[in-house]
Amino acid sequence: MKWSEIFIQATIIFSIILIILPSILKSKRLSLMLKYLIGISLSMAIIFRGIQTKRFPIINLYESIIFLVWGIILLSIIFHKKLPLVETIITGLINVALLGAATLLPPWEKAPHYLIPALQSWWLYIHVTTSFLSYSGFTIAAIFAFLYLLQKDKNKRRIIDEISYKLITVSFPLLSLGIITGAIWAHYAWGRYWSWDPKETWSLITWIIYAGYLHARITKGWSGRKTAWWLILGFMATVFTFLGVNYLLPGLHSYL
Amino acid sequence: MVNISTRIIKLLSSTKLTILLFIFLLPLLIIGGTFPQHYPAAYYYKYGLPGHIFLLLGLNSVFQSPIFTILLLLFLLNILACLYVRIPKKFKSSRHIPLLPLDHIKNMKFHTTSTKTYTEIENYLKKRGYKLKNKNRNCSVFTKGEIGWWGAEIAHLGLLTIIIAGIISSTLSKEYFFQLTPGESAQFSNYTVQLKTFKIPLYPDGTPRQYISTILLAGRNTKSFTAIISVNHPLNYKGYLIYQSSYGIAPFKIGKAEILVTNSYGRKTTLQVPFARPVTFTLPISNSKVTIFCPVFIPDFVYDIAAKKIYSRSMEHKNPALMCKISYNKKLTTGWLFLNYPQFNTISFKKIRFSLEAYKPIYYSGIEINYDPGTKPFIIGSIIFLMGIFLSFYIPFQRIWICQKDRDTILIGGISYRGDKVLIKDLSQLSGGKIEVE
């Protein structure tokens, strides 16, 4: 077993502990410590994968899922103070589900492929990291939107609503940066900055949905249930942009 | 007249129009991003009636359709009208911030009182980066982070530039695409591009590491020069970007052909024959001379009996055939040698047989040349847009009013856009920690 895989197994174990212990002991401090441990363990997995592949490990489904979870943990640490304790259960569950799925992927999806000529560019790092960090943010925002819909306590609902909005103010600029750096990269690699490729079009659809959310919230003062549903819709578009486009539609973006 | 133009601007700048445009734009984007675009009509007909309807509605090229262009133009006008309405209003409001009466300040979301002197408060606010905007004998108003207040307008200005860039690109850009084998050249605008060499270095597992073309560029009145292009490393030449776009096996050209010569005793020898160049060999099996010239190669040979025509069924090397002119023993024969079906070879001599044993395919380099005057505006628009959203989300904007309430107390009130932290901190510092939040 490779070192990166050992660290992923360790992260899954830490995430299981994150689901159980902090909620039983009602300790936010313990949950933060566990989040740091998960962050370090995942970073180690990414570093070892990078050493193994001799490149930045974010070019196939296996590697991108690991990076997505890394982004979720990073945002969860950044917003830790504001988050209710129930978040640790959800974050832990997402980690276990996503990393478990990554581990169970067929060998060809996990194989440490060489970097194809089209991906040999510095733009890869900026484009992919910003895009995936935005996906991480949209994922947590959608979970909070879902929590909002389940929550009865008015005060807690207000806090959850506020956190979701804050997450979008981080993720939306990241998605914009991801789309723009992708376009500039396409200009250098494919010859034109926009080709209406399915991946480009779907990322634009996702962007429009979140831009709509921000306008509804800022200019129309919408909040609560309406914007919570909006965030869930945005997340569905994000998932389709991330996975659906690659597995269901043909296009230039044949890698992730 | 004034009334009509005001109404048009009001309509164009309305949020209702934005929502309406999105309602129409999103389904078009979903169709264009999900269903195959620009395929031949036969592809859509395969799906029966839905395919026919899809074609009839022009959904096979959504992004080039007039309806999509009209919606984009309306969206452009929508942003333009919004900026036209909002920018002067904001300018006016930022230049003339009114001084507010005590009651008004008391009703603000954040307000407090301070026992510090008026000058102390003024100095503190100035030290914290606040700017004095208006003042009279008893009251003043300060602002901080005003640039953040303009973030939304800056972002929309960026978006406007991006859409204009898109219109410039779709109307003025020029594209050329050439499949060149080494030695071949092509013309674009007033320039010529010639492929000198094309290399495909490999990874240890045999997969391509890079596609590298050495090209020679020449113009009518410019000095020619050699450059190297590879994937992700295009060349900017006189406003044209020259890309390594693709590669493939040249359909109608080959490298050396291996032609097997067999005499009537079964003795064999293989000749390395270059493509489209006559060469004379001395055959070791018969000690006589043979001249071979193979000028035509068909990758997927088909002979149409009715039309008496030879053509290639596809560009793939499925049924390779080489046409050769062979001169042997003062007899010249022209015919075809087939790689897969040597029994159908049409070249024959009395005591000697020729057959195509193998050949070396040659790769073409797919070179794309683009002239796109919309690229720079797109990059500028993108930078403006990103700056705008950064300012809008991360630079909080505050306004603080201070007013002498009585001899010993000063009333302070403030408003904040996007993030109250800075305002709360400043008001707490001035009041010693007691602030009222409505």
Would you write up a description of this structure?
The complex is a heterodimer of chains A (256) and B (438). In chain A, 77% of the residues lie in helices and 0% in strands. With 256 residues, chain A is an all-alpha fold. In chain A, helix 1 (3-25) runs antiparallel to helix 2 (28-53) and helix 6 packs antiparallel against helix 7. Chain A starts with a helix and ends in an 8-residue tail after the last helix. Chain B is an alpha+beta fold and 438 residues long. In chain B, helix 2 (15-34) runs antiparallel to helix 5 (66-95), helix 5 (66-95) packs antiparallel against helix 9 (151-172) and helix 9 packs antiparallel against helix 10. The model of chain B has no long low-confidence stretch (mean pLDDT 91). Chain A binds chain B through residues 114, 116-118, 120-121, 169, 172-173, 176-177, 180, 183-184, 187-194, 196, 198, 200-202, 204-205, 208, 212, 215, 218-220, 245, 249-250, and chain B through 15, 18, 22, 25-26, 29-30, 32-34, 36-37, 63, 152, 166, 169, 173, 175, 203, 205, 207-211, 230-234, 241, 243, 245, 368, 370, 372, 375, 378-379, 382, 385-386, 389-390, 393.
Quick rundown:
The complex is a heterodimer of chains A (256) and B (438). By secondary structure, chain A is mainly α.
Which helices and strands appear, and what pairs or packs with what?
The complex is a heterodimer of chains A (256) and B (438).
Chain A: H1 3-25, H2 28-53, H3 61-78, H4 86-103, H5 107-110, H6 123-150, H7 154-189, H8 198-218, H9 225-248
Chain B: H1 2-12, H2 15-34, H3 41-45, H4 49-56, H5 66-95, H6 102-106, E1 110-114, H7 118-127, E2 131-135, E3 139-144, H8 146-149, H9 151-172, E4 174-180, E5 185-188, E6 191-199, E7 212-219, E8 225-230, E9 235-237, E10 240-263, E11 268-273, E12 279-283, E13 288-298, E14 301-304, E15 309-312, E16 321-328, E17 331-338, E18 352-371, H10 375-394, E19 397-404, E20 410-417, H11 421-431, E21 436-437
